[in-house]
Each structure stands twice: as C-alpha cells, then as structure tokens.
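Hi R.,

Here's the chain you asked about this morning:
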Amino acid sequence: MAPNYFLDDLAGFVVRAQHPDLAGAARATLKRNVLDSIACAVGALDGELVPAVRAQADEFSGRRSATLVGGGTASVDQAAFFNAVLVRYPDLLDTYLTQGGLCHPADNFGAILAVAEHLEASGANFLLALAVAYEVQCRFSAAVPVMAHGLNHALQLAMSVAAGSAKLMGLDAGRTAAAISAATADNVSLAAVHAEPVSNWKGISPAVTGMRAVYATMLASRGITGPRTLFEGPHGLAQLFDQPIDFDIGTTELTAAEHTYLKRYCALIHGQVIIDAVLGLRDAHGLRGRDVASVTLEVFQGAFDFAGGGAYGNKDHPSTKEQADYNLRYLTAVALLDGDVGPEQLENDRVRRSDVQDLLTRVVVEPAADLTAAYPDRTAARVRVVTQDGRSLSREQSDYEGSPTHPMSWDRVVEKFHWLAEPFCGAGLCGEIIDAVRRIDEIAVRDLTALLGAVSPTASRTRSARRS
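And the predicted structure, written out as tokens:
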C-alpha cells in the first residue's frame, strides 16, 4: 500500500472545500478584505516603483488573459505579479499574527484574481479559492514559527497561492498536491529581506512568490509532479523547522479572514497601535513636533526587533519608503509632525526632510516583558511624550480600529477605499467597484476586473484629507 503523506491530506482539504464552508460572517469579512486589497492596489498606482514593475510585466507577457489594475492586460503570471505588488506597496494590507511570525493573506489576492480571470471563473468560485488560500496560509502560520527560524512568510504564501489556484482550476488531489509541493519547495524565502538597510525587495518578494506559484500550478495541471515528502521526508519542512508539521485541516470552515487585522496607517502592523496612540496624544493635547522634547515607546519584543532597532538592525537613519514604514521612530515622528501616516508620509522626499530626521532622534523604543506576553492576542504599546515645557503625557493602548478585537466595518473600509482610490477613479467608478465587490458571488470575475482596468493609472488630483 502506498504511503500517505501530510501533503496528500492538505490537498484533500483543498479539494473538499465547498461554498457552504464560507458562510455568514466569514463570507462578509472576506468581501471586506477584498475591498481593502483593491483599495491598496488602486492607491498605489502613483508609487515610485510602479512604472518599473509595469514595464517588467509588459516585457514578459505572452497570452494576455488577465487585467492589470489601472488598465492594460498581461499574461496570467505577470498580472499576478503586478497586481500583488500594488496591493503590498502602500503597506496598508491585511495581516494575520502568530507567535514567531505573521503573514499577509492579502498577498494572495493578486494571484488568485489573475487565475480566476484567466479561467473566466465566477465571482463565487474566486471568493471560495481566495478563502482556501487564506486558510492554508494562516493555519500553517499558526502552527509553524517561520520567521523565528529566519525564514520569511512568503514560504507559506507559495503554499496558499498554489492551493487557491488549484481550487480554481478544479485539479484533483494528486495534481493539487503536486502544485503545492512544487511551489513551496522552490520558494523558501529568507527573513533577511526585513533587515536593515531594507530594500525594495521586501515589498516585491511576495509578488514574485505568487507569480512562481501560479506558474508551478499550471505545470502541475499538465501532470508535472512535485516532491510528495515536502513536509515529513528527508530534508523536508519538519526537519527544517525541527518540529512535526500537522496544522489543523480536519475542519473545513473557512473563517481565517475573521482573524485578520486591517491597517489604518501606512506602516507595518506592529506600528498601528503606536501611531494611533501618538495621534491620540497629539489631538488631545494640541501637540506639534516643535513641542516635543522626547518620546519613549514601550512595545512587545517583535515590534522592537522588526522596527525598533532590535534583531533586524539599527533604525537611526531611514532614507527610503521601505526603511521608513519599518521604523517606529520615524513613524512616531512623522505622525507628530503631519497628523497622519498615509502614502504621502512614506514618499522618499518626506522621509529625508530635516524636520522628521531631527525629531526621530528624540524617540526611544524599548521592549516590555508584559506587552510581549500579551502578543499576539494584543499588539499593545505605551507611549510617553515629554514636552519642551516639561509636561509628561502618556497613553497605553491595547488595540485599534482594525484589530480583531475592534474590527473595521464594511462601511469604514468603504471610507478607506474612497480615500485611497478617488484620485484615480472618481466617485462614480469607485461606487461601481464597491458594488461589484459587495455582489462578487453573484457576478463573473471579469465584471470586476473590467472595472479595475478602467481605473486611471495616474491621479487626477491630490488625495483628500483622511476622514476621522
């Protein structure tokens, strides 16, 4: 009798998933996250790197079967790449937190959307495949501390994009297993992408992983096999992580989206509560940057390591967008100066200005054991500002609007969408896109992508001030 591998069980989970497994609040929450991902993608169209990424997608496209956000078409793999870069670019995408790491389930969106359009899938099948991808990525992340072992969360993204793509293609368990194993074996990503000096590659790496996973799944659909011993075999993932890997696939309820965080500010997830608390102090006391003598941030260990000057490197001199959105000192300083942390606060010219570079030297970040113990259930922080006239102002905060304990509603994501997208598509087209996402399980995917293709690639006006 042929041996059974965990990979076979995982493939069986993907094949068994059905529309009733995505129901009620979970379905509504996933639609909310889809709209959030599209908001990020449209709002990124004027990003500094976007023309280079667009040129790459254009040059290497063959059969142009999928739409690019902002107009034009590309091959399915290049559309997966381009649209995924857009979703990631503003650093406003959803996040799932675990001990020893995290992942961004929205990284699946660009790839799954491209495959769905390529296959002329229904919106309902797209949503089911995206839910499967969210589930695979989040369940693996919860079971395996990937980043604690020096690997990046793009590893499990390869798994999840392949799973969602295979679901859309209707592959049987054998070919689904081949897709997952081939994609994962070739996308073992290093956490070094987060180390200082942070490069452009941090934001582009997941898109490359998704593109490669789509390509691997297409090969698997043609009968190309992958390593069946991916998890428990010699030199497999269990050996790499020195633990058994058997994440929960016994239940088929697709509820992962309900456990995700959404972002209010253009920053890593570890900075959301801090920025919210800083802005709360700023508003409550009428603070401005010139009023501040010093700021002390107490954070959980992961926030200190990623963005406070800990394990991933020194945060003294950010000079680029990629360094700024992973720097709690910069994010605090620019929030005090500008009263927000949006796309404008991450432009390279803003990062390098003397006012924020001076103020960030007065920001100190410290890890706190009690806050570390509360993670990942809470991403709590304490902020203390000492003013030039000697006042000491403090605020402790354990969540923010967007965390699972204080979730962002559909209506609030609609507001976020308008804020990010209206400069590129105006209120009328914005309304059509919002309605299409609301009704995604009643329409064809091409109905949605046609609207995304109608978005202007250039902004017609500056972004409005953020609504409270």
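The beta strands are 66-67, 73-74, 96-98, 101-103, 292-299, 363-367, 381-387, 392-397.

Let me know if you need anything else.
M.
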